Amino acid sequence: MDDLLGASEVAKELGVSRQRVYQLAETHTNFPKPVAQLSRGALWSGTEVRRWAYSWRREGGRPRGKPL
Questions:
Q1: What crossing angle do the helices spanning 46-55 and 7-14 adopt, rounded to 10°?
Q2: Given Cys at both, which of 22, 43, 45, 51 links 4, Cβ 3.0 to 4.6 Å?
Q3: What is the pTM of this model?
Q4: Cα 28 from Cα 48, distance rounded (Å)
Q5: Whole-number pLDDT of residue 62
Q6: 8 and 22 Cβ atoms separated by less than 8 Å
């Protein structure tokens, strides 16, 4: 059986905040879809999150604004 991860566990796996997990889930079309949505939040497949993390090209810093 696959392990299920909540946002806190996904955040720990990825080295990001819980809020960032939800941002990634919203903005990255290839981020794994939750396997369940509970009143406390989403649950993801640990295997799928790790597979996604392996190929994730992490870009640091804030997005650049328009040049002045």
A1: 30
A2: 43
A3: 0.80
A4: 14
A5: 65
A6: no
Give phi and psi for 13, each to the nearest 5.
Answer: -60, -40
| Phi, psi (rounded to 5 degrees) for 41 | 135, -175
Nearest one of 49, 46, 14, 18 to 31, comparing CA atoms: 49
For 2-52, write each residue's pLDDT tens digit.
Answer: 799 999 999 999 999 999 999 999 998 899 999 999 999 999 999 999 999
Calculated CA dihedral for residues 50, 53, 55, 56, nearest 10 degrees: 170
Q: Are 45 and 35 in contact (CB under 8 A)?
A: yes
What's the one-letter identity of residue 13?
E
Spatial CA neighbour of 15 closest among 58, 67, 61: 58
